[in-house]
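Bench notes, afternoon.
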Amino acid sequence: MIDINAPVTDPGVKNALDKRGNARESLLPILLEVVKENSFLTDTAMKEIAGALDISSAEVFGVASFYEFLPIGYNGKNTIRVCKNISCYIEGKDEIIKAIEDFLKIKAGETTRDGKFTFKTANCLGWCHKGPAMLINDTPHTDLTPEKAIALISEYT
C-alpha cells in the first residue's frame, strides 16, 4: 500500500509536483519533468509520484515503461538516440549506429563507463524527410553521415 502522506524525498519529484500539481492527469507531465531534472526515473521516484497522485505504482510504471523517452534506471549525462525506421534505414542508419558504437565503445542500449553517454535506438524521431536522424538529448541532428554523427557527439565530450 502506498502512503499518500509520505514525504517526497527525491528533489526532481518535489520540483515536478510543485510545478505540475498532484492531479492524476498530471502524471505524464510530472514524469517528463523528473526525467528532465534527473535524466531517468528510479523506483523510488515512481513510488513517490504514485503516492502523491494517489494512484498505484504499477500505473506509474506502466505509463513510464510505455514511452521510450522516459528512461527507467540509470541513464548517462547525454542520451543519443538514432532513428531506426525504414526511411533512416534506406539512408544509412546502420552505418551511423556502427560508427557510434565504435566511437563510444558500447552497443545500443548501453551507457559509457564514465557515464557521459547512453546510446539508444528509437522507432521514429519524426525527421523521416531528413534521415538518417539522431537526437542528442533534445537536439535533433539530420542528414547524418558516420563522420558527421561522430563530430556532433565529440562536441559533448
